[in-house]
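Researcher: Next sequence.
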Amino acid sequence: FRLACESLKSEDLFLVIAGTKGWGNVEEFIKDLSPLIKRKIILTGYMNDRFIPSLYQSALCLLYPSFYEGFGLPPLEAMAFGTPVIISDRGSLPEIFNSITQTYNPYDTKGMSESINQWYLNPYKRLEESPKLKEFAKKFTWKKSATQVIDFIKKNQ
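Model: Next structure:
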């Protein structure tokens, strides 16, 4: 995020980290950033589900730097709202989303920055991609997942 801010010199680019605290201490990671960058980082803490749609809809993109992921509900949620997704090339993420997202090595901060810059500098591409992302997300439903699990159990009894 710092690299993206520095290269874009943008006043309207913010990093929103939503949700309860995870395994690490975010404050520890941002403590050495300049005040200019720190003021552009918003830590929401817990968010009620009713606010999630507007968060995704107003986001430039979802950056998902996971080192291991079983499936990746946040990327799918973002796509359902037409929000572009940038995922790491780890775990199951590329297998599930590679055809529709940008991928990068989660250790490659320059690559992440460049992906953010691409979405920021190409707003029309975002508008063009949004319907494709929504359509892709429709492939995944709770009903379809439940049916697949039930079918698997029946087949393997």
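Model: The beta strands are 15-18, 41-45, 62-64, 85-88, 102-104. The mean pLDDT is 89.
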